[in-house]
Amino acid sequence: MRNFSSPAFRRTALGLTLAGACTLSGAADFAGRGVFDFRSDAGCPFTALAGGGNECNRLALDDADTHAALDAAAHTIRFASTRSYPEKTIVGDVLLQGSGRARDGQRVPLTFHALLSRSGSEWSVSSHAHSPVSGEFDDIRIDPYKVTVNEPGTERVVLTAEQIVEALAKPSLAARLANVFVQVDDNRAEGARDADITIGLGLSRASKSVARARFRAPGAKGRDLAEAMRQGNWTLELQALSSKIPRQVVQRDMFLYGLESQPLLQPLLQRGFRKNEKLLLGASDGKGYIRYDGQQREFAGADAAARAFLQDSFIGLVLGWQQQQPPQPVKTRADGR
Q: For residue 137, which of 98, 100, 157, 206 is within the disulfide window of CB 3.0 to 4.6 Å?
């Protein structure tokens, strides 16, 4: 489990582990609103970004009324809540990191993401897979977790290890079943080094561009992502190409990546993105900063937020993958949500 006193335990807002949580058996209980990382024995998409403990799996709790118990030895995550919600509400999520073998034989990072919601006292779960390239995969490697929720007098399994592997093997199908298909265009010109992508929603010609994302590391040598960040001169830029990005999505992402308490970003938190607005995280000579709406502020958490985004989000996964790959002669597509 993560060393909770370390700077890497960077995204917890109000969350805490209960007393005696970290034991030799790998069990931990979580309560309070927060984001918690735990070890991935299957590896991380960008290992050097995750630190020596490979702590890139994620468990998030959206409110103080939801609890979770992680048993790493038994590969089980149990969610519990006694609160009744007036409408369907996201109360937590689980994100598991893994990899698969593409048809060309290369090993590709894959991510499984499950959102847990409550409506009244009823649980529901939606899940999908992220992959930085299109296609189907075999030889899936991912920690074999199952996820359960509390029911009156018992608990119910809502996700099995087998279901997770099946979703990762065919991520494009998982995206379609979630009623969304995400396409990614590689914007890099020949000879370009840094990642630059446009994200579209929809199928083929009906796809509509909604965001652009770029990672730049002008002082780095080669395409190694972790080395680029270690140099202390980099930028991660997100630009909204549509005003239709749901405000709730923006708000939850700001929670997940430790940005919701930043004073500069309060307008973004309250109303979401306007078309063509940009949010930029960066570092100059090792000093982090954040830039939004023409203003820039020092931000010591920029490095941690960017590392989390690059590993945990679909956009970040594609950016990180492309940063380490040469530009493609034609535009590429990735699958996810």
A: 100
